[in-house]
Specification:
With 228 residues, this protein is α+β, with helices and mostly antiparallel strands. It has nine helices and eight strands. The strands form two sheets. It has a six-stranded antiparallel sheet with strand order 5-4-3-8-7-6, with helices on both faces. The chain has a two-stranded antiparallel sheet with strand order 1-2. It is elongated and about 60 Å long. InterPro entries: GAF-like_dom_sf, HTH_MetabolicPath_Reg, Tscrpt_reg_IclR_C, Tscrpt_reg_IclR_N, WH-like_DNA-bd_sf, WH_DNA-bd_sf.
């Protein structure tokens, strides 16, 4: 029995849906994708490659197809692949810096914390996962304003500096006593997918969070981008 449903009368669409459904159950090589859908390898490859162009599918480091970032973005949820790649990066940032680390995605007129890690002890900044924060203050907000079409009250020259440097920092901007530094995370096609941040007490990160932890954050961001 064939694994795809041709009931719509649009064969290529039915096959594309079957391929997405097969990959949703786990990453698939071309041979596995062909077996799961009972499509010829050439057909499965042609459709999967087209879906990859539209970011519905993506390739992992083994060349297998996995779900891409487009589907979660349509529903407003974070990509499972992004969350999986971010988890060890956030943990290592906390271990290196002793400060809190967060990953934000743009959600309309706010930025939402989709992943975070905090030190086990000591004074630190806690941003619960799922928190919706303003786009009008904070280093992460500045990064979104610099690289995405959002309405934010930042000076154009400041945003150009963020684009030139690849960093944004803030001290006591969103909250008294809090400082942070943030960098953009890009997909392979150059699209902004998230913002990675380190935050903590201004007395530890100030006067320049970038000078203190910018290099560590840049390395972490490069690692996360490479995973995507």
């Amino acid at each position: 029995m064939r694994q795809y449903n041709e009931g719509s009368g649009i064969k290529v669409l039915d096959r594309a849906v079957a391929i997405v459904a097969a990959v949703a159950s786990g990453d698939k090589s071309l041979a596995e994708l062909s077996d799961a859908t009972e499509l010829p390898r050439a057909t499965a490859h042609r459709i999967a490659t087209a879906l990859e162009v539209h970011h519905v599918l993506a390739r992992n480091e083994r060349g297998e197809w996995s779900l891409g970032p487009a589907l979660p973005s349509y529903t407003g949820g974070p990509s499972p692949r992004l969350l999986a790649a971010a988890a060890p990066v956030l943990r290592d940032l906390v271990e290196t810096t002793g400060e809190s680390a967060q990953l934000y995605q743009l959600t309309g007129t706010t930025r939402t914390c989709i992943a975070a890690a905090e030190p086990e002890s000591g004074l630190h900044n806690v941003v619960p996962v799922g928190s919706h924060l303003t786009l009008s203050a904070g280093s992460a907000a500045r990064v979104f304003a610099a690289f995405a079409p959002v309405d934010a009250p930042f000076d154009a020259a400041d945003l150009q500096q963020v684009r030139d440097d690849g960093f944004a920092e803030s001290v006591a901007e969103r909250e008294v006593g809090l400082a942070s530094v943030s960098t953009p995370v890009f997909q392979p096609d150059g699209a902004l997918v998230a913002v990675l941040s380190i935050s903590g007490p201004a007395e530890r990160l100030g006067p320049s969070p970038t000078a203190k932890w910018g290099a560590a954050l840049k390395d972490a961001t490069a690692r996360l981008s490479a995973e995507l």
